[in-house]
Amino acid sequence: MLKDYYAILEIPQDANLAEIKSQYQKLLLIHHPDKQQQNQSLQQAPSAGPALIPLQDIKEAWECLRQPAQRAFYDSSLKAMKLRANGQVNDDIDLDDMEYNEDNGTYTSPCRCSGEYVVSEDELELGVDTVSCSTCSLIVRIHYEVADEEDDDRIGN
Ligand SMILES: [Zn+2]
């Protein structure tokens, strides 16, 4: 599940770099750990005041959005995630059924239109599992096994 960096930074998705930066700096001040402690001792009721955003999330959001290439990739992933959340996923496919292209490290699958679904290994590594068709608006969810330690509890070691 991707974090919504725009929601974290409280900015519109079309915010420009200057806007993102100034909002980032503003949030850094508001949510700085020292500041949070101060606020807590000032107002005894912990429920009062704005919800505390982990500083880590704010930094992570800025690090991603400040780089155009990374932001573009993030935007498309976020869009796919939201479409999925809205139940707009049209099909489920298995990664094993996709065609692997060694040249650029991507997996492709044909769409019912003449377009195709393309996902790269990098995207899969980042947890992307929904892809939209290159030409129409259909979206597929890709199923794949992630081979890492997080699967340990499922195996029941
Ligand atoms: Zn299509």
Model description:
Required for the first step of diphthamide biosynthesis, the transfer of 3-amino-3-carboxypropyl from S-adenosyl-L-methionine to a histidine residue. Diphthamide is a post-translational modification of histidine which occurs in elongation factor 2. Belongs to the DPH4 family. Keywords: Iron, Metal-binding, Zinc. This is Diphthamide biosynthesis protein 4. GO terms for molecular function: ATPase activator activity; ferrous iron binding. The chain is an alpha+beta fold and 157 residues long. It has two domains: 66 residues, DnaJ domain (Helix Hairpins, Orthogonal Bundle), CATH 1.10.287.110; 70 residues, DPH Zinc finger (Microbial ribonuclease fold), CATH 3.10.660.10. Helices cover 43% and strands 16% of the residues. The chain is built from seven helices and six strands; from the N terminus they run H-H-H-H-H-E-E-E-E-H-E-E-H. The strands form two sheets. Strands 1-6-5 form a three-stranded mixed β-sheet. The protein has a three-stranded antiparallel β-sheet with strand order 2-3-4. Helix 2 packs antiparallel against helix 4. The protein is elongated and about 55 Å long. The structure holds zinc ion.
